[in-house]
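Troubleshooting: if your tokenizer reports a length mismatch, compare your output against this known-good record of 144 residues.
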Amino acid sequence: MAGSELVAVLGTVDLFHGLSPKVLAHIAEAGHQATYAAGDAVIVQGDSVTGFKAFSPTGVEMHVILEGAARIDVDGVTHNHLGPGEYFGEIALIDGRPRTADVVAEPGGLRTLAISKWTFEDLLEKHPEVAVPMLRVLASRLRA
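Known-good structure output:
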């Protein structure tokens, strides 16, 4: 997905609502696109986000779904399905604790924009207004 197209997609994500195109372009440039085949685990429940993994290029990331869908499983039970414009992996970036769910690419595969812990923390520090929609989504997920 080209830069301007990616910026437009990010502008539709509730987490980034109201951010300027310049900030969205920064997020798009700082992240990287990742592709997963059907059945691939993107995130594994219980995986640590600290230690050496935190320093690997893909160790500690959140993902915004660009195409396809993902299944969210907790303790082997499916709890949700996510599609384009939705995101996952942010909880571990916030609290630094192990991953709370398995996230698996659905049939047809999955393409995401992966955003590192450092990009995410920089975004929250420079644009704290991002925290409000995130809190709404987290509260909704907890209620579900």
